[in-house]
Amino acid sequence: MHRVVSYRKVGTEDVGQRIDNYLFRVLKGVPKSKIYNVMRKGEVRVNKGRVKPQYRLQLDDDIRIPPIRTREEKAAEPVSDSLLDTLKARILFEDDGLLAINKPSGLAVHGGSGVSVGLIEALRQMYPDTVRLELVHRLDRDTSGCILISKKRQVLKGIHKQLQEGGVDKVYFALVAGRLDQKFQWVEAPLQKNVLQSGERLVRVSNQGKAAKTDFKVLERYKKFTLLEAKPITGRTHQIRVHAQYIGHSIVGDSRYGDEYANKLARGAGINRLFLHANRLNFINPGTDKPIEIVADLDSSLTDALGELER
Question: Whole-prediction pTM value?
Answer without folding.
Answer: 0.78
